[in-house]
Amino acid sequence: MTLNRRTFLRHAGLAAAATQIPLVSPWAQTPARTFGPNDQIQVALIGAGGRGQSITRAALAVPGWKLVAAADCYDGRLAHCKEIFGSDIQTTRDYKELLARKDIDAVVIGAPDHWHRQISLDAMAAGKDVYCEKPMIHEYADGPLMIEGAKKYNRILQVGSQRVSSVIYAKAKELFESGAIGKLNMVQAHWDRNSAQGAWQYTIPLDANPQTCDWPRFEGSAPKHPWDPQRFFQWREFKDYGTGVAGDLFVHLFTGTHFITGALGPTRAYATGGLRYWKDGRDVPDVLMGLFDYGDWNLDLRVNFVDGGEEGEGFTFTGSEGTMEITGGGVTVNRVPRELGPGYSVGSFTAAMQKQLVEQYAQKYSEDYKRRTSALTDTKLETYHAPRGYDDVVDHFRNFFNSVRTRQQPVEDATFGYRAAGAALLSMLSMEKGTVVHWDPVAMKLKG
Fold it and tell me: What does pTM read for this prediction?
């Protein structure tokens, strides 16, 4: 993310290439398959780490598809895929072997962030639809390439930030659009963790070595380093492969905010933070706070991996007529009617003067006086909870597979995904530059 001359020229070259994606790919171009009601969608998993396996397991709750292959750079994960998804699936280190199969309709990409662009473009060129885990991009130049690739190859590309498919967020969107909290003026959101696993200190297997792990393939286009099991298995800790807490967690908060409000993105951002606790060799912050300007309202985000309390995430939407809070299990609206008059403070006056002033107020501001002297001043609550055991990842995959079958645009297409990830990465850029950064949410470009 550091904007030195070399990376600037690289970003500029990639952006220019966005309009030059070849229509001729190494694989034969095939039209999207037409599915009958009983036809299965054949899927390959590319990047079978913890997240890749987890979301694929969740997707098994959706009928009508089958996992037929998996690719990963660690042999142990490929072996485990056969254990949990069936011994008959094909496994390989080279994802291009899977793209060459004409019987595979779609891929699920759970690879590190720095591979999202290339695997997505290769898969779409090979005639496969794509479910790409968030964040969609590793650097800004990825976004235009992936958006244009989905258009040129006429493929479904859904980004895997499941908030847009959640019944909780759908209810929040409905309440917001109904005017439940009045005119929005501020959104606050957080995602705090206090555990080592929550801070990405993922377990390194005992057999991790250059023979069981394809280190050169993992590195791909990233800067080259000697074999390092921490970089391989805890890649989120390093800018070369991941996008820090901004791409891992801020992007979820932006996805939820944009989905509920319909906003395209902020126009400017300022962020601060630092590496306060997890000094284990990582080069990304473990505490990050950002302020984002949406014109007539603001977004305040926080991620804290040094949280001394309970882990959790949540939103508070503050409007002119109340607040709306989202927690893991539901959404609550707290309505407090606004004053209709200036109010009165007469307690320090004589009793006669108090009476006279209150009577005058009751005549001049009758509606406000009625509210102040009746139950209308009481807080009004509305709460919605998701069903027990609800998993929005399942619904996100249900929506993706429906798009594959119908060829209708997905609930979180490449444009939406880029706007969420692009907004999130503003925070890393701002912190590195130590200044406000500007973004054009319509054109989806950095300004200045």
Answer: 0.89
